[in-house]
Amino acid sequence: QVQLVEAGGGLAQPGGSLRLSCAASADPGFSFSSFWMSWARQTPGKGLEWVSGINTDGRRTNYADSVKGRFTISRDNVKGAVYLQMDSLKAEDTAVYYCNNYPSTWSWGQGTQVTVSS
């Protein structure tokens, strides 16, 4: 079973930046580098919104239109981690952010809260 731990959220001002991280761990034999990874977010009263995805070697990325040009996804296969650099933050980016493989088949982590407010 894969465990996911997200971190890096917090309070940011509009126009500011945050960098989220997600560490994946599992039993020996787990190969993080074999999986596409993704970030998604959830706000109260709304469903889970896919934000970004990255392929196994990090060379291919894709983004939701709402974050394209502002967010950057990356990964470190040695560390078993995926990151989300969030720039030019907007109030509507406020949400709990989660990582998972893509498509999402692992158990969800606790997420990390991002609040964008002045």
- Count every beta strand, where a strand is a DSSP E run of 2 or more residues: 10
Largest β sheet strand count, sense and barrel closure: 6 strands, mixed
- Quaternary structure state of the chains depicted: single chain
Unreliable segments of 5+ consecutive residues:
none
Instruction: Specify the structural class.
Output: mainly beta
Instruction: Estimate percent helicity.
Output: under 10%
**Integer average pLDDT:** 95
Strand order in space, largest sheet: 2-10-9-4-5-6
CA-based gyration radius: 14 Å
End-to-end CA span:
40 Å
Q: Which percent band covers the strand fraction?
A: over 45%
Principal-axes shape call: globular
Q: Which H/E pattern describes the elements?
A: EEEEEEEEEE
Tell me the number of helical segments per DSSP (H or I, 4 or more residues long).
Answer: 0
